[in-house]
Amino acid sequence: MQYFARFRVGKTAGTKPAAARKKAAEFRALATTVASTPTAAGRTSITFYLSETLRNRARTAYRMTCADEADLSWSDLIGKALLAEVERREVMYNDGEEFDGSPERLQPGRPVGV
Q: Which of 106, 103, 110, 109 is nearest to 44 (CA)?
């Protein structure tokens, strides 16, 4: 199953359709292949923090587009978004090759210099 990261252009409060189309035209992403039948053994739970504004915006985007985008669940949307960003970084920093996965835990806190 392939997913494509994209903008859905439509009327939203404070956004003009022409501006939304221009923004969508600037956004580019590669096709992403995702397992079509996730298994319990292949999934894990993660916890992270984000702003309330972003969370609410993402929830609304999910509610408004989940049927059109074939999102199986809220977790499916979050997984697609994360995968799109990982693939963008692989293209930018790893010649388009997948980074090697590691089960090592990340260091808690902010990275040095942030």
A: 103
